[in-house]
Amino acid sequence: MTEDLAGNALPDAAHHEGGFRPMSELIDATKNADITRGGPHYGAFIEEVRKLMDRARLSCPSDELALETIGVLKQLNDRLDAAVVDEWSAPTWTRADLPARGNITIPPYVIDKASKDGVEARITFRTFHLGGNAAAHGGQVVVGFDDLLGMAAALYAGDVTRTASLTVDYRSITPLNKELSLRTWAERRDGRKVYVRATLHDGDRLCAEANGLFIVLKPGQP
Any residues with CB less than 8 A from the CB of 77 and at least 6 apart, and which? Predict the structure, then answer.
């Protein structure tokens, strides 16, 4: 992973008066990023959670198994209550050594290149992201686009941005459990407006493409 723009990888609630966590300050994975938050087992922890999500997506449990699983999950949730921290202290968004920075709400991806010229990543839509007929759900494709478009917009602008609009055109089926290529880049900036584009490919086949508008936030704007 290479980044041409470096910064403090450990923002806190003081950034933008607690309003928003700067993406441009989080993607410096090679030099300054904190890959200790959550400990050495955090990656395995996230992967097991993803596996649970994958299995739950297609499970049809018996009554006995459902009740047993409910009991186990209740006990686990009770134990995890003691580990819950505030947004600024959570490992998510700081673990640049992990797919999607350890964020289980986003389809896992690995960044190959990130700079003002754009972002190149490899993304995998898992069983949990199933829409139907072995294809990824269109909404999950949007989630992947949105996160990486935001990164491209922030790098291009050198500042914090939020999504204002995002349009996705689906060109062919997006397969599950296969590494795909996702590329995002900014085309231009007009004041606080940053116009961005993205493509998602399975090899040479175009699965989907997107264009969006991101807005550079004012200091303190949530």
Answer: none
- H or E stretch including 181? strand 179-190
Quickly state the pLDDT bin for 18 (edges 50, 70, 90): very low
Edge to edge, the sheet with strand 205-216 lists 2-3, 109-115, 118-124, 179-190, 193-202, 205-216, 161-170
**What distance in Å separates the CA atoms of residue 152 and residue 157, rounded to the nearest whole number?**
9
List pLDDT tens digits, range 155-208: 999 888 999 999 999 999 999 999 999 999 999 999 999 999 999 999 999 999
Burial (0-12, 13-18, 19+ Cβ within 10 Å), 79: exposed
State how far the Cα of 33 lies from the Cα of 96, in Å rounded to an integer. 7
Q: What angle do CA 23, 27, 33 make, to 5 degrees?
A: 120
Instruction: Provide the pLDDT for residue 160.
Output: 84
- Asked if 200 contacts 212 with a C-beta cutoff of 8 angstroms, the reply is no
DSSP per-residue codes, 2-18 = EES----S---TTGGGG
Distance CA 150, CA 162 (A): 7
